[in-house]
Write a structure and sequence with these properties.
The complex is a heterotrimer of chains A (316), B (305) and C (426). Chain A is 68% helix and 4% strand. Chain A has 316 residues and is mainly alpha-helical. In chain A, helix 5 packs across helix 7. The longest helix of chain A has 35 residues. Chain A is globular. Chain A starts with a helix and ends with a helix. The mean pLDDT of chain A is 90. Helices cover 65% and strands 1% of the residues of chain B. A two-stranded antiparallel sheet of chain B has the order 1-2. Helices cover 43% and strands 16% of the residues of chain C. The termini of chain C are far apart. Classes of the chains: A mainly alpha (316), B mainly alpha (305), C alpha/beta (426). Chains in contact: A-B, A-C, B-C. At the A-B interface, helix 1, helix 3, helix 4, helix 5 and helix 7 of A face helix 1, helix 3, helix 4, helix 5 and helix 9 of B.
């Protein structure tokens, strides 16, 4: 082999990966940023009307209702202008998504920790419990959702039966009630993810040095105190790490929304990615869908980048 | 005093055991319910106080589900018909095979060589972990369409071919062909191969591919398996992306199930829906039950970010 | 070097890509593919495939292929995606009659005007045609896009046996409907269930019953804040607030209502005619059906269901074959058979005179009553930007049911929101 080809061999080896990362991550990111500056709305007729396209900062002029029109950053201005349709939708979706993340992530992490502690004991049959907690990870989210839809059925759904047993008297149709639909999505997500996050805590627990516990034993700490004051703080790296994957997964996984909020048809429980899907493929409002995608990229980039910098600094 | 402490420990242990059993049982309710109800007859509708076992235990719901939707291929006119199962398997295997090649090669390059702008390339690939492919469904859908002619990237005189990726396993699989996670995982695994082994291989006069095949890969097999398991599980369960880029020809299992959930006029037939749910989830769940440890260990790697 | 990389890239792609290309071409026959919305569990797949076979026997050069694509919304999304993605487009699709504007605007469908003659169209009951025309080219006259096929109306199903046992008659006014429902409500049974999922459709008969439909003939006007609409919404509230005859709040979903009715857990339900065969097959009591009573009497309902659309961009031979098939499929013999087997209402007037229908209704008088409701059906909710406008309306209806707003407030908000969107067309 010549010297030259030896120098280029490693580049050749990474070329396929580079190519696909370029085609399906870098290029689309650039593209969607570009396209978000264009009004294109194919479910509207290609009919010329004097209009400002109902976007802020656009002059009224005779335009096709369908587009495409170059509108610059108008969609971004609209997002933060609650008087526009886009602004109102954006506010609703962001509020939903924030609630969804802020509730599902801590609860599933807490449950994951509890599960890990419970099954990190050398007992016979403990494998069964581990299986019980982890199997939802292997289930497609859409299957999990179909099962839970029944649980949320009013009157005889298992979830409602259980709630009533504990004295609940509120509304029962979780899936089609706009006040409850978002919570129903959260419940499914928590149930499905806790077991997955558990395994990271389990690994963390198994790597903890024994002497810490011995010291705690000598101090006469009880089991709960030990968990709260010794174990959980020791696992803060795991917690940070699990938080990041949990947040990422909360943004990306919306398959359950496709099944569960299908009958709701009000948009009041829409999560960010689901809204992107709806705007692009159902309402066919391309410009808005592209803008929402950019916002989502920005959020996730900020998140992963911060995490990356933090863990680099700690020298991991 | 010591006796009292023992008693307390005993009591505490008993409490944790109960908590474990209760929680595990709670977590199992959905799958157990799904299994039980799928064994009811499809006409046996659920109602108040009647949400578990029906009058009889029968596989009718499964038969009807298989009858209603093409879950399994059939032999017809001398060839196998398309089915949800074959579609899912096709795109899962396609993704996996290409991924195994790309991540092994890239991981090897990053672990074994020093080359121009290595770090830059590495971070470039890691971008994929920062911007998850799932959220790029809109522009990626457009890309898949653009593939109908390749001349947007490659000059026509070099390569020209008209084809259409929409509604093929290729469309579903392609965005995942390069994997930053896999590259990272394999690089880590290769880095742990002892230098003495590599040097010995060099002295024996191994070419790069021989080195990769005989020296690097054998000790790294667990990582490759882990990556494979995670990849298969992830893609088997995927819904949103296939929903966008497939129609009836390449429709995978998850989309098949989606159709079952939309029983509009007829009213909910839970046993049928649950039979379909079990049909699509069974292979993965079954494999998990058998290779529990292997799966859990693999998913532990999936967090490497 | 650049050239070299490109070459390798090209090589790589050529290895990967063309294998995705295997699309079987049926050279000799003209293939007419039809996207069909279907809830999987129904004998509908068999019926349709039977139609395809019968038709093919008479037309050996045509191959009719039904693709079952899920719910109505899925068919629309799928068709638009297939066209955008460059997939093989079908020749025909059955989609919601109300999606006409979106579909035409997106260039997904083409007009039937070149095919359908006046004689042919005269036999469709005019009520079914209220969402079939759209003046897209702006010449003042609507073009025909939707041919009625899988059509339904909203029905009131009541447990006749139960009514008789309690000495009650079928309700004929709002007042009677509410009091009857109240009288039949027990600890284990609801007097009436009105599904709250996808609520506009079951709401429209009530609105019409108060003298005010939510839409007119226009594609850019809605009438959400009219007094009649507000009264109708108040009446929905009263059903649980005043009469306690239905569960409080947003409670009933579409799928569970027929089961609750046939199991005797609900004395009356409001549901589609499409559920009729299922309900008749399962109920062990006498089932009564009618349109919804109006406020001061009279009966009202709304059209619903899907039309046959001709997909844009197919070649002439396929379009011609598709038209052949559509003509055959909408012959009274077929529409009557379809109606008998599925509960969807026959769309051809002359079909009602056929012997098959006469024999059928002699045994199932409910089917005749269901079919008769087309005479009192109003135009279904359809405007430009339907998805968005409908979401606003739905959200406000559910707000009212949840007690978050009064009917008047909610409908005013809905009107403002809808006007904001629709103003772009005016």
């Amino acid at each position: 082999m010549t010297q030259l080809s030896r120098r280029f061999l490693p580049i050749l080896l990474i070329l396929p990966t580079l190519y696909f990362v370029f085609m399906f991550t870098v290029r689309p990111t650039y593209k969607v940023l570009n396209d978000s500056q264009e009004y294109y709305y194919p479910s509207r007729p290609d009919r010329v009307r004097p209009t400002d396209l109902q976007l802020p900062g656009i002059e009224e002029a005779p335009r096709s209702l369908r587009g495409p029109h170059d509108v610059g950053w108008a969609y971004y201005r609209a997002l933060f202008d609650p008087d526009t349709r886009e602004g109102e939708t954006f506010r609703q979706v962001m509020s939903n998504t924030t609630q969804y993340v802020l509730i599902t992530v801590p609860i599933s992490i807490l449950l994951a920790f509890v599960f890990a502690v419970l099954i990190n004991r050398p007992l016979r049959g403990i494998g069964l419990a581990r299986m019980a907690f982890f199997y939802p990870t292997m289930l497609p989210l859409v299957s999990a959702a179909t099962i839970w839809i029944f649980f949320f059925t009013p009157e005889y759904g298992i979830w409602n039966t259980a709630l009533r047993f504990f004295g609940y008297h509120g509304a029962e149709n979780w899936v089609i009630n706009p006040n409850l639909a978002l919570y129903s999505l959260m419940i499914v997500a928590i149930w499905k993810n806790a077991g997955y996050f558990m395994i990271f805590y389990l690994a963390g627990l198994q790597n903890l040095p024994d002497d810490v516990f011995e010291a705690a034993d000598l101090d006469g700490a009880n089991w709960v105190q030990k968990m709260v004051y010794v174990t959980f703080p020791l696992l803060r790296r795991t917690t940070l790490f699990v938080s990041v994957i949990a947040i990422l997964s909360a943004f990306q996984n919306i398959d359950h929304a496709l099944v569960m909020t299908y009958e709701l048809a009000t948009g009041e429980a829409d999560l960010l990615l689901y809204e992107v899907y709806q705007q692009r493929f159902e309402f066919r409002n391309y410009g808005f869908a592209n803008t929402l995608t950019v916002i989502m990229i920005l959020i996730l980039l900020t998140l992963t980048f911060t995490n990356f910098v933090l863990s680099e600094r700690r020298g991991e | 005093m010591l006796a009292e402490q023992h008693k307390r420990i005993h009591y505490g242990q008993w409490m944790t055991n109960v908590a474990t059993i209760v929680l595990a049982a709670l977590w199992l309710v959905p799958i157990v319910w799904a299994l039980v109800v799928s064994l009811r007859s499809p006409d046996d509708s659920l109602g108040p106080d009647d949400v578990w076992f029906g009058e009889t235990i029968t596989t009718e719901s499964y038969e009807k589900a298989v009858d209603l939707a093409p879950f399994f291929p059939e032999w017809k006119d001398g060839h196998l018909t398309r089915s949800y199962y074959s579609n899912t398997i096709q795109f899962v295997v396609l993704t996996l095979v290409v991924q195994l090649i790309t991540v092994t090669l890239a991981g090897f390059a990053f672990a074994h060589y020093d080359f121009f702008a290595k770090k830059l390339f590495f971070y470039f690939i890691l971008l994929q972990m920062m911007i998850p492919t799932a959220i790029l469904l809109v522009p990626n859908f457009v890309t898949i369409r653009e593939f109908s002619t390749a001349d947007f990237l490659i000059p026509k005189f070099i390569y020209y071919h008209e084809f259409n990726l929409y509604d093929t396993p290729w469309a579903v699989a392609m965005p995942y062909f390069g994997s930053a996670f896999g590259t990272f995982l394999m690089r880590q695994a290769f880095l742990e191969v002892p230098d003495e082994l590599v040097d010995a291989g060099r002295i024996d006069g191994c070419r790069w591919y021989q080195l990769l095949w005989h020296v690097y890969l054998p000790p790294s097999r667990p990582s490759l398996v882990a990556f494979g398991l995670v990849s298969v599980s992830f893609h088997w369960n995927e819904l949103l992306w296939p929903l966008v880029v497939t129609s009836d020809k390449a429709r995978p299992l998850t989309m098949g199930l989606l159709r079952f959930t939309q029983l509009s006029d007829i009213g909910a037939q839970w046993s049928l829906v649950m039979a379909a749910t079990i049909i699509i989830a069974l292979p993965l769940l079954g494999a998990f039950l058998i290779f529990q440890r292997q799966f859990i260990r693999s998913f532990l790697h999936s967090g490497v970010k | 070097m650049y050239r070299k990389n490109l070459l390798i890239l090209a090589l790589l792609i050529s290895l990967i890509v063309p294998a995705g290309l295997v699309t079987a071409q049926d050279g000799e026959k003209t293939v007419v593919e039809i996207y069909f919305p279907i809830a999987v569990d129904s004998p509908i797949t068999e019926i349709l495939n039977g139609y395809a076979e019968t038709f093919e026997a008479a037309h050996p050069d045509v191959d009719v292929v039904f693709s079952f694509e899920g719910a109505y919304g899925d068919v629309k999304t799928k068709l638009l995606n297939t066209i955008e993605g460059g997939g093989d487009r079908p020749a025909l699709a059955i989609m919601l009659a109300t999606d006409i504007y979106d579909l035409r605007n997106a260039d997904a469908i083409q007009s039937w005007d070149a095919y359908a003659t006046e004689d042919y169209l005269a036999d469709f009951a005019p009520t079914w045609m209220t969402n079939s025309y759209y003046d897209f080219d702006g010449d003042g006259e609507g073009e025909l896009y939707g041919l009625p096929f899988q059509r339904s109306t909203v029905l009131l199903y009541y447990n006749q046996t139960m009514l008789e046992e309690n000495g009650l008659a079928a309700p004929t006014t709002w007042e009677e409907l509410a009091t009857t429902a109240q009288a039949l409500t027990t600890d284990s049974r609801w007097g009436i269930l009105v599904p709250n999922s996808w609520p506009y459709w079951v709401f429209q008969p009530f609105a019409a019953g108060a003298g005010q439909n939510i839409v007119s003939e226009s594609d850019v006007d809605v009438y959400f804040d009219e007094q009649g609409i507000i009264d109708a919404l108040q009446y929905w509230l009263d059903l649980f607030q005043v009469y306690g005859a239905t569960p409080e709040g947003v409670q009933n979903n579409w799928g569970d209502a027929p089961g609750a009715f046939t199991d005797g857990n609900a004395a009356m339900i409001v549901h589609s005619t499409g559920s009729l065969p299922g309900i008749l097959g399962r109920a062990e009591f006498e089932v009564g059906v009618s349109a919804l009573p109006g406020r001061e009497g009279g009966f009202y309902t709304v059209t619903g269901g899907g039309n046959l659309y001709l997909v844009e961009g197919i070649d002439d031979a396929t379009a011609a074959a598709a038209w052949e098939f559509v003509q055959w499929l909408t012959m009274p013999e077929q529409t009557i058979d379809w109606s008998i087997q599925t509960g969807y209402i026959n769309t051809r007037v002359s079909g009602f005179e056929l012997e098959a229908w006469q024999t059928y209704v002699a045994e199932n008088p409910q089917a005749a009553q269901a079919a008769a409701t087309i005479d009192v059906a109003v135009r279904e909710f359809s405007v430009q930007d339907l998805g968005e406008v409908r979401n606003i309306f739905h959200a406000e209806i559910l707000n009212v049911l949840n007690g978050a707003a009064t009917p008047a407030e909610a409908m005013e908000a809905a009107q403002t929101g809808a006007d904001e969107i629709l103003s772009i067309y005016r």
